Amino acid sequence: MKIIIAGGSIAGLSSALTLGCVGHDVHVYERSETPLRGRGGGVVVLRHMLRFLEQHGHFTQEMISVPTQLRRRIGTDGQLISEEPEKLPFSSWDSVYRSLCSMLPADQISYGQEITGYTERDNGIEVHFGAGNSILADILVAGDGGGSRIRAKVFPEHVPTYAGYVAWRGIVDESTFTPSSIETLVNAFTMFRESGHMFMAFLIPGINGSLEPGRRRFNWLWYRNENDPSVMNKHLTDNLGQLHHSSIGPGRLSSESISELCQLAREFLPAVLQQLVRKTQQPFFQSIYDALSPSFSLGRIVLVGDAACTVRPHTGSGTSKAADDAISLAEALGHEYGNEVQPALQSWASRRREEVEKLLRKGPELAAFFGLGHNSTANF
Ligand SMILES: Cc1cc2nc3c(=O)[nH]c(=O)nc-3n(C[C@H](O)[C@H](O)[C@H](O)COP(=O)(O)OP(=O)(O)OC[C@H]3O[C@@H](n4cnc5c(N)ncnc54)[C@H](O)[C@@H]3O)c2cc1C
Q: What contacts 24+ positions apart, CB below 8 Å, involve 224-227?
């Protein structure tokens, strides 16, 4: 089949790889003019995504992740509250992205091509592009992220719900600090939490994938409860005065938001964590939403990754879920589906939605345990 994929990020690339493997003619259209870079922060690379990368390419856990040895919780004065051994494979969004990109033939992805709509035809689906052209395909896979335009067209009644908290995020080079000032943060997943907020920091590979001490980067995330719409609007207005729906990327926060972030850090964080925030050149901001599409497929359209369902970031499962979407979709569209593509898509969609719903429930439970969001049952 001829399959068009909207979005060349984690879900879109994973789907292109698996669908290509089972013999389909796939092409990815990404609206960004250039390959994506430095877009996301650190990610925990869970088992499924690692297996995916190992099976489809030549990247192993050791090559893309900085394993931590300990999970540490510290208090307001920086004192150690608890410490336990824990190995978590922390990587960066860039490393996962680069691994996926390196496996997809370059002629299967086009940049600077925004998909603006589609028309269902008897013999396929006509996909429309910003430049005014259209291409007829058998299936359109929407890997166009949490704010999916395709999902909005397929299910206009569906609106993502705000979870009641935001994430400030940042990445800062390990080399910015003297080794003694960050000693306690190296080799550990460090956590600080108090009523209504939780801060996490861990090392991730350098921008070019380096795992060498001194060339890695710290990734930090600071989740904070926020229910004041005026505060949200202020932080979601970028340095050019444009208001965004749910996130502001690196380099786009207004100077007012950055100074407010630094002020909050001074007020609430232990000194060792304050320095991470202060030295971060391009912090970014994200409000946390839950989105579960009413179905993962309609007609010849399929939703994958965050377009299908956005899981809470602290479950660390977004990239693995995207990989599982891609694997299960390719299995459903392997050799067994015969000529009836739409029933095969429907049956995949209902199976996959059930599996994902279980994962989705974990997020609010974990957030409530951490005292984050609506219905938090703070446990400190
Ligand atoms: C704060 C935070 C922390 C996170 N931490 C983790 C973690 O630790 N572990 C983990 O596994 N996951 C984590 N995630 C989630 C993870 O990043 C995503 O779930 C995963 O990358 C899947 O994203 P995606 O490919 O579906 O969508 P996106 O990465 O949003 O990509 C969508 C792509 O589609 C393109 N696009 C959009 N519209 C169009 C269009 N009309 N035409 C063409 N292209 C289009 C966009 O330019 C973009 O490249 C985190 C997320 C957040 C917000």
A: 224/165, 224/166, 224/167, 224/168, 224/196, 224/197, 224/264, 225/164, 225/165, 225/196, 225/197, 225/371, 225/372, 225/373, 225/376, 226/164, 226/165, 226/166, 226/287, 227/164
Q: Are domains 2-38+96-160+290-364 and 61-93+161-288 of this chain identical in fold?
A: no
The answer to whether the beta carbons of residues 198 and 78 sit under 8 Å apart is: no
Ligand 1 centre to CA of 145 (Å) is 5
Q: Ligand 1 mean position to 121 CA, how many Å? A: 29
Give mean pLDDT, residues 133-138.
Answer: 97
pLDDT tens digits for range 179-199 = 998 988 998 999 999 989 999
Q: Rounded to whole angstroms, how far apart are CA atoms 161 and 246? A: 11
Which amino acid appears at position 277 of this protein? V
Ligand 1 pocket test target in 319, 320, 360, 370 with most atoms within 8 Å of CB:
319
Considering the segment(s) 2-38+96-160+290-364 as one domain, its CATH architecture is 3-Layer(bba) Sandwich (3.50)
Decide: helix, strand or coil at residue 88.
coil
CATH of domain 61-93+161-288: 3.30.9.60
Checking if the pLDDT of 67 tops 90, the result is no
Nearest CA to ligand 1 atom 8: 43
Burial class of residue 309, CB neighbours in 10 A (0-12, 13-18, 19+): buried
* pLDDT value of residue 60: 67
Q: What integer is the mean pLDDT of 36-57?
A: 71
Q: What is the pLDDT of residue 377?
A: 43
With H, G, I as helix, E, B as strand and everything else as coil, classify residue 18: helix
143 pLDDT higher than 90: yes
CA dist., res. 350 & res. 63, Å (int): 36
Pocket of ligand 1 from Cβ distances under 6 Å = 6-12, 29-32, 36, 40, 43-44, 93, 114-115, 143-146, 149, 167, 169, 286, 305-307, 313, 316-320, 322
- CA–CA distance, 20 with 58 (Å, rounded to integer): 17
What is the distance between the alpha carbons of residues 75 and 10, in angstroms, rounded to a whole number?
35
What number of helices (H) and strands (E) belong to the chain?
11, 21
